[in-house]
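Form 12-C: Joint structure prediction
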Amino acid sequence: MTISTSDKPFLTRVKESENDHFMQQSVAKAQDAQWDKRTAAREELGNWEQWRDLGEQIRQHVIKYLPDYLEQFSDNVEKKGGHVFFAQTDEQAVNYIKKIAKEKKAHRIVKSKSMVTTEINLDKALLSLPETSIMETDLAEFILQEDNWDEPTHIVFPTLHKNRDQIQNVFKKLGYSGSNDPEEMAKFARKYLREYFMQADLGITGCNFAIADNGMINLVTNEGNADLTMAIPKTQIVVMGMERIVPSLKEAEVLDNMLSRSAVGQKLTSYCSFSGPQVNGESDGPTDFHVVILDNGRSNALGTDFEPVLQCIRCGACLNVCPIYRHIGGHGYGSIYPGPIGAVLSPVLDGYEKFGDLPFASSLCAACTETCPVRIPLHQLLIKHRKVMMDKLKMDHSFNNVLMKGAGVATSSPILFKIALEGAHMGSAPLSKSKETSVDNLFNYGHIEKAPSIASGWTDVRDLARPPKHSDDFRSWYKKHKKEQQEGVSHD
Amino acid sequence: MKVAIFSTCVVDLLFPNVGQAMVEVLERIGCETSLPTNQVCCGQPTYNSGYHKESNKVFYNEIDALLSTDADYIVGPAGSCVAMLRQYPHILKDNPDYSKKAQELADKSYEFSQFVYNILGVVDAGAQLDAVATYHRSCHMTRLLGEKTAPFALLDNVKDLKMVPLPHLENCCGFGGTFSVKEPEISKQMVDEKVDSIISTGARVLISADASCLMNIGGRFSRRNENIKIMHIAEVLNHNVDASRIRYKNQPTTV
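Section 2 - Result
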């Protein structure tokens, strides 16, 4: 399993992100721009909340009847002369693809963007074959490849962390001598890639949706590279997660619409293709067609609280609204699936030992849940992960379990709470300062600049208000207030 | 109309002025208040941290306490805590002893500004505040409770108050309950961006309907030595009130 992008501890990654000002600005700018585009594209469609209901229903239905739809899809692929391979693990998937590449004596492999091939680390496995070269043909993936296989930071915009100067430098290594103008650089990449395409003998694509009732593969791109990957080489291998299926073209139409608007704020992407093996009378397309359907931990979610994570259509909208992603970026998560969906999915696929930090790296602001086009309750699933780690696995996540359990006892006991109210002011005396602060009306009873134990995380960043004397607290005021009211009434 | 005050542990422990303002506004508009004394906390600190076994007792206590009076409504000064009460029926749906009570509680619980505007139908609380202010929209109040209009509508009618829009209104302030103490490195960056956004508006007063967010943003203001006044919306609606100006929906503006 190689969804991990870093061996460094979570906190180190967070610190590195904090120092990467370019990345932070770039992510913030992209989030803000996408906010407007996405909102406009959804408003233009109208009745967005009902579309979300429909999207959720389609995805839930498919997950519920997943074995049936996979069987139907597989039968239909084979009817057209294609081959289907079910891979339980990444290793099985990689070995099958290597086997095909060897059989076909493939030397020049073209790939279109696919998160699932990144998940199984396919590129490096294929490069280990003798006399084999590989080309990522999605512009952003191409840049990452040429930059010594840098890791993606976003599931839709993989190079969000790179600026145009960095990209210019990457291209210089390939003989580019132009400016840092994006259009000029894109033209260079297009020509470079096109030459490679024409001689490619194996094409590998991902899959946005697999159509169960006709065995077609639906791909959605803005560059057309996936279409060339499907059209030119005589052998094509499609790699898909096992949940990436829809019953028919009708549902694909609904989901393509929602995917494009949610992912890039477009009505529809520039290219939206449905294809399969070359059939009689067609002049192009693969004559040898394979679909690899991958589990790789996805079935861990089936029948559990985490099943909704399989509804995901990989639009990345949750990354684009996430205030955590905004600051720590994709590399901060240490998984090829970052952001809220990554924080839910990564532990499902690869366990809590490696990704147990991620569900805690959330303020539970629910922006993800609000934007998800297929209504995955993302922030609730983060809480469910925390529950598994605390209640079930009894893990220690640098938060003091004894203290938190104590907090559970204290906040369920009116008597203990009353004692706390009575003693809070005096108890906080050794920590408190009465000096003036610049903030009016928040620290009416003094403030605390350095608190002990778990509260130190609070005062590392901000001042804490000091509790009032018991005689000045809300409950004491209320008692007096009621008494005055009653006395007032009796005087009348 | 009888209203039980859901004071919240944060107001009970730290911010008496918020609770006091809320009670005074509600009583001025004709509510008869009570304060159930056995209430402690809505349970978010433990529940959201994953300690669900420990949280059940917190929920039971809060439900029993808040339902102990004959109040028609339960009203609290925090969108986040009220949103938690509204989630009880879902969390306790299979609990034979508490599922019904949880529903009863959720059905009559409201956040303060939501209650004043939507249930009491007040559009002008009669308050006056000579200030330029901006409003921080809390995530849970907006997204979990679904209340997006009430605070803005009420603040629009505070006399002499100039409200300026806050850029990136949709972004979290970095509080997130235990997140703020568990992940200070990330939380700091979030609250700093929020503080910068607030400063950019030129507002001198920051208003919100969640005392916890105010405690977070205000605490960072203080650490950065930024000069600002923090006010809960109940304090604003209780400021320099002229009761003759109180106005309800569908009522002519002046007599």
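Section 3 - Comments
The two ends of chain A are 79 Å apart (CA to CA). The first strand of chain A starts at residue 83 and ends at 87.
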